[in-house]
Amino acid sequence: MTHTASYPLLSRIHSPEDVRQCSLNELPVLADELRAFLLESVSRTGGHLAANLGTVELTIALHYTFATPEDRLVWDVGHQSYTHKILSGRRDAMHTLRKKGGLAGFPKRDESPYDAFGVGHSSTSIGAALGMALAARQKGEKRKAVAIIGDGAMTAGMAFEALNHAGDEKADLLVVLNDNNMSISANVGAMNRYLARLLSGPIYSTMREGSKKVLEHMPPMREFMRRAEEHVKGMIIPGTLFEELGLNYYGPVDGHDVVGLVKMLRNLQAMDGPLLLHVVTHKGRGYGPAEEDPCTYHGVGSFDPEQGIQNGKGGGTPTYTQVFGDWLCDQAAADEQLVAITPAMCEGSGMRAFACKYPDRYHDVGIAEQHALTLAAGMACEGLKPVVAIYSTFLQRAYDQLIHDVVLQDLPVLLAIDRAGVVGPDGPTHAGNLDLSFLRCIPGMVIMTPADENECRRMLSTGYLLDQPAAVRYPRSKGTGVAIDEGLLPLPLGEAQVRRKGKGVAILAFGTLLTPALEVADTLDATVINMRFVRPLDETRVLEAARTHDLIVTIEDNVVAGGAGSAVAECLARHDVTARLLHLGLPDRFQSHGTREELLADAGLDKAGIEAAIKARL
What we know:
single chain; alpha/beta; Rossmann fold; 3 domains; 7-stranded mixed sheet; 5-stranded parallel sheet; 25 helices; 19 strands; 42% helix; globular; Transketo_C/PFOR_II; magnesium ion binding; thiamine pyrophosphate; thiamine pyrophosphate binding; isoprene biosynthesis
């Protein structure tokens, strides 16, 4: 709940209409209160902090200028959407952010009419907003569509595909480029603000359109003037690329001057056709630690704002991500042919130490998952051994490249798939629930599911030594606390491991759900097999279990459809072995957000749920 004494102006804001009732002079005050409220709120719930602190003024200006929700605002990725949520009636629910049953961490269409498009993955905003603009034109509706995209998201091919189409369609679309890291951001100051406002104003626009009409019957002069205008603007404004794509470029402008932004946006609101406004912001604005280290404060857990995030290493059980990072450095020391690739997920994938130690063998391609896979394929063709660290949910974006460029050519590329299975607070856009299903059907893929952190390390070595495409998928969580081998020892390919012998029921566990499976087996006196490999499947163990037990139970942190359990069923059918089967996995729906533990329990994949399902079948 909002404390009215601390936020006197913000406490009066219940919708964007209330924002539009403010005077221009009140907007900087509102921005200060919003920034303080964001810090207080996110420090308690966790979430994306630095990006939101950097776009407070921009968000206020957009809602102040445009008649939302009739005018559509489409946020790219959605990391910066908290201010938008606060201003659009969800302020008093921010304490539930990313919690089960609470607000989503990203814009979500069924959460609010102000969330015009559901996001979570990058570089979709321009295409979606263009679709809305074209729909409005076809339906004869007069409204604006605005895409807000960051400079990082602008590196993806999808963004440029949409820009190219927008310029060709001449639709009424405004693209706001939120630039907080590009070199062109240095050109910000009084002169640039003046030029940007001048170029967006009615005098310049009228002169430009009038000149085009006068010169339309004089093609040589018209072409000369077009090129002259382009080169003059190119000297003072870094927007030639966008102009060539057919968008009128304006900026760069100061993204923290809320009054100036409103005046600029009002000018652009009166214009037709595809426009691009270049806004320069600073991540973490207003909170010193986040300004100095926006990477650490990108996605945060709860913390004390007075103390800041404490990064002291206190030991303890490593995460699977840390296990990968350690293995990567060790394997690189043993083999000079190793190269590591990431699509803008260096820290998230545990690659910081490798990047510092082996900078010439580290390649961050930006938010370009498709390119990451094809780049790896090209390197593999020349005898290098690429390791691609990628989140499960982002691998979906590079599926064609994985099939066509890597596996079809049988190239030795190792995928280190982080955030597999249930992820938690980030919700369905970031859940890795599908990878076993969409990988298992690809001929030639080796797929491994470690049950603990030591198996994860050994499987990475296994996949790296193979002369074919391979994948190791692991969750976003800490390990089990087992001892980790220091060497680079592989596992026997396709070999499962019997962890407990029982009778009646055989539980075939794939991945980290081995732990609750063993707990259930102690209660039911069941056999437990740590399957380890989804492909190649240990068919010998599967057939033996089917012939000596009354019920076969498969457990996986993946949707049941097409997953590891399906592989077991197909094996039995192929060998004409009849067996009672129970497939346990994630539900046939997109799970909402919550903790990993809550979502596993909801899916019946904790000890209680697994035991209840088996007893019900028996």
